[in-house]
Amino acid sequence: MPELHSDLLGALSARLGAKHVIADPAGMESYLVEERKLYRGTALAVVRPGSTEEVAFVVRECARAKVAVVPQGGNTGLVGGGVPHTGIVLSLARLDRIREVNPFNATMIVEAGCILRNVQDAAEKVDCIFPLSLASEGSCRIGGNISTNAGGVNVLRYGNTRELVLGLEVVLADGRIWNGLKSLRKDNTGYDLKNLFIGSEGTLGIVTAAVLKLFPKPKTRVTAFIGCASPHAALDLFEGLRQTMGDELTAFEFMPHFALDIVLRHAPGAVRPLSGDHAAYALIEVASPDPDLDLRELLEKALGAAFENGTVEDAAIAASEAQNAALWHLRESLSDVQGLEGGSIKHDVSVPVSDVADFIVTASRACEEALPGIRVCAFGHFGDGNIHFNLTQPVDMEKPLFLAQWERFNRIVHDIVHAMNGSISAEHGVGLIKRDELARYKDPVALDLMKTLKRALDPQNILNPGKVVALEGDLPPALPMGKKG
Amino acid sequence: MPELHSDLLGALSARLGAKHVIADPAGMESYLVEERKLYRGTALAVVRPGSTEEVAFVVRECARAKVAVVPQGGNTGLVGGGVPHTGIVLSLARLDRIREVNPFNATMIVEAGCILRNVQDAAEKVDCIFPLSLASEGSCRIGGNISTNAGGVNVLRYGNTRELVLGLEVVLADGRIWNGLKSLRKDNTGYDLKNLFIGSEGTLGIVTAAVLKLFPKPKTRVTAFIGCASPHAALDLFEGLRQTMGDELTAFEFMPHFALDIVLRHAPGAVRPLSGDHAAYALIEVASPDPDLDLRELLEKALGAAFENGTVEDAAIAASEAQNAALWHLRESLSDVQGLEGGSIKHDVSVPVSDVADFIVTASRACEEALPGIRVCAFGHFGDGNIHFNLTQPVDMEKPLFLAQWERFNRIVHDIVHAMNGSISAEHGVGLIKRDELARYKDPVALDLMKTLKRALDPQNILNPGKVVALEGDLPPALPMGKKG
C-alpha cells in the first residue's frame, strides 16, 4: 500500500476508531459484492463513520488524498451503483437515528442509515405512514432510497422517493456540509439543490439525513384481483378507476397469465385468486384515511360498471385484511419465483401510461419473434407506466446460452422503449450496469449537462466515480463476476 | 449604440422579422416596468421569437455578442425577476401553442408563452384539471409559472408548480436546446435536470415548453367559511380535517378578522359569511372526482366534531356552486382591497405547518410592539405554512413615513421566520427584491452551491444576470422607482 494511502487510513482510524476502518478481506467482503452477485469490487478499506461530522471528515481527507469515496447504504441496489472500483467504501449504516417525528407537520427527520422499515414503523407509531414500500424494505436504508430515487408499489398515489423528501443534509465533494433540512411545503429561495442530489446515486454528494413527508394513515383499504382479456383491457380499467376514484386508488399492479402461473406453481402459500384463467391480471388497492367511507361499496360499483362494458372478465374483492394480504402475496412472490424457471433477462422500463398496453404487446411480440419459446414475464407498476419487462428462458434451452443473449434483448426492448419516448431505467437507476446503455439512448445535450454538473460539484471526480456518467479517465464498467441473470 | 449591438439587432431582425425586434421606447415600455411599478429597467431591445428554434437563435447570437438575455412571460411577477438592467428582453409570448393534450396519460404539452387560463381551459375540455391557480391566471404565462415555481391556492392538494411538471424543453446559455419533454411518471436515467431549471427564474436556462400533469376533474366541491377563536384553533381544525379527509381537503386558507373586515368594507359584492365576529377565519374546500360521494355530509360531520370540542365557533357551508363562489370571492378580493387602507409592507414567508399559528401570533405581537397602531393582515395558504404577512399602516400615519420602515419590518419578520427554520420567500421567488435579503439568511454553503451552478451552466453570466444570486460584476439591485408599497 502506498504511503499516502496508509497515511489516509491512519488519519481515518484516529478519528473514527480503528474498528470502524476495515481493511481485511473478510471484513470487507460483504461491501464489495452486490446483491445479485453481478459485480465484485475492490477497495482500500471500508469506513463506518458514526455522524455527519465524521462523514465530512472522511470525505475531506479523501479529497485531500485524491482517493475515491463510494457511499453505501444497505447495499441492496440492482445496478451496481454501490460497488467500489478503487478508493474507500463509506458505509452510512451507523447513521441510523431518527432525529425527529412531527405528526403535526407531517414530517420526520431521519439519518441516511435508517433501515426503511424502521422509518415506516416510526411513522406508524404516530398514526401516519411513510408510504415508500419496496421488496428490500427490511434491509435497504433510506439514504440509498433517496440517492437512487426509489420507486415501489405506492408511487401511483404518493410519488417516487423524490416526492417524499422535503429537505436534505448532504456532505459535498470537498467535505463541506450543506444543511438543507427544511421542513417546509413551500420554499422559493433559490435553486432546487435538493432534487439535484436525490437520484444522483452518490456521485454529486453524500446524503447524511433527510426530512421526509408523512401522510395520514389509511383507515380502510380494499384489495382486488381482477382478470382481464388483455393488457389493453387492463388499461381501460385503470383509466376508468382513476377518473372516479382519484387518489383513493393507491396501487394498480399488472401480472400476465405466465406470472400468476409460476407464482401458483412455486410460491409457498399462494392461493388461486380467480377460478378461471385470464390473459392479464390487475392487482389493485383503494384506501382512504376516512374510516366512514365504504370503499368496498365504491369499488364494487366501479368494477360492476367495468364488468358490464366488458373491460373486466372476473374479479375477487378481499373481504378482510387477511384476504388483502393473500392477494398482495401473489404479487410480492413474483420476484423470487422467476429464478426457478431458469435464466431471466431483465428490464426496468417506463413509457407514458397511455402507451403501456401497446408497449407490452409490441415488445412481447418482438421478443417472441426473436426467440421462439421465450416466456415474457412483463409485470409491475402498470399505473405508473413502469414495467419490469423480464424475459424467462425457453423451457428446453441451456441457461448460459439464453443469458448470452442479454445484450441482444436489451437492444430489442430498449429500442422499442426509446421509440415510445420512454425510459430505460424507470426506478432502479443507472449505476454501472446501465451507464453505457444510457450514453446510447440519452439526449446528448442532457448527457453533456450531467457531465457539466458532475465536474462543477465534484471537480476531482472522487464521489462514486464511474457511476451514472463516465468522465475521461473513468474505468470501464466493472467486469461482471459471471453471466448476468 | 455600439456597432456590435447594432450588428446583433440586425441579425435578430433578419431572422425574427423586424416587427418582432422592438427598440423604440414606446414599444418597449410595458416590458421595462413591472406590475407593482417598483422597478424600471433598461434594455437594448425587446425581441419576440416565435418558436423554440428562434429562441435558441436569439440566445446563441447574444452569447456570441456577450449581451444579456432577460426572459419574460406575462410580466406579472412580484419580485422584479423579469426587469432588465441591460441586454435584451426575450418575450416568450408568441410561443403559445398547446402542442398536445392527452387525457389518457393525464398530461399536456404546452409552450412557455401559454396564458395559464388557456392551459386550465384546455384541460377542462377533456374533463381534467390543471390545478395551478393564482390571482394573475388570466395574464401570467406558464413559462413564468414554471421558472418561478409558482404556488397559489391549490398547493395543499396538488403541490407547487414543480410537482405539476413532468418534462421540459429548455434553451441553454449557449443556445443549445435541451429536449426533456418526457411524459413519464418514473424516469431514473441520471440527474434531475428538470428541477434545476424550475424555480431558477430564467438564470440557468430559458424554458420554452413543458409537459404538465393533469388530474381527474372534481365532480363535487364544497366550500366552507369557518370562524375560530384564534390561529391556534384554526391549526387544530386543519390537523383534524387532514387526518380524516386526507386529499379531499383541497384548500385551507386563513384570514384574520382585520382582513375580512376590509373585504366587507371595500370589495364590491362581498357578503358577510357569518353573523358574528371571530378572531380567525378559515376558508376551506373539499372536493372529489367521485360524483357519488356526499362531501357535504362528510364535512358537516367533521365540522360538527370540531364544533363540539370548541375548535370551531361558527361555520357556513356553501349549498351551491354560487355560494362556493361567493365564499371564495371574500378571499380573492383581499389583495385588491389592502391598498385602500393605505401603505402596506409585504412578506411572503413560510414556516413548518405545525408552527404557523405560533408564527402569526409571535410576528404580529413583534410588529404591534414595534409600531403601535400597525394593522397586521396575515393571511394566505395556512395549510402549506405559507403566510402573506402583510402590514397595513396605522390609520393616522402618513403613508411615506410608514413605507420608509420597510427594511425595519423586513428585519423583524424575517428574523422570526429564520429562527423558526422557515423561508423568506415561500412562493414569489427571489428576483431582485429579495436577492440581497437571501444572501443574509441563506445557508452560506447553499449560496455557494447556487453560484457554482450558475457559473457552470451560464459561464458568461448572460441569462437574467443579477437575479437570484449576485456574481462578481453584477449590478446592485435596480433602484426602486419610488417607495415600495
TrEMBL record, chains A, B:
This is FAD-binding oxidoreductase. GO terms for biological process: respiratory electron transport chain. It comes from Microvirga mediterraneensis. Residues 39-217 form the FAD-binding PCMH-type domain. InterPro entries: FAD-bd_oxidored_4_C (IPR004113), FAD-bd_PCMH (IPR016166), FAD-bd_PCMH-like_sf (IPR036318), FAD-bd_PCMH_sub1 (IPR016167), FAD-bd_PCMH_sub2 (IPR016169), FAD-linked_Oxase-like_C (IPR016164), FAD-oxidored/transferase_4 (IPR051264), Oxid_FAD_bind_N (IPR006094). The keyword Flavoprotein applies. Gene3D superfamilies: 3.30.465.10, 3.30.70.2190, 3.30.70.2740, Uridine Diphospho-n-acetylenolpyruvylglucosamine Reductase, domain 2, Vanillyl-alcohol Oxidase, Chain A, domain 4. Its cofactor is FAD.
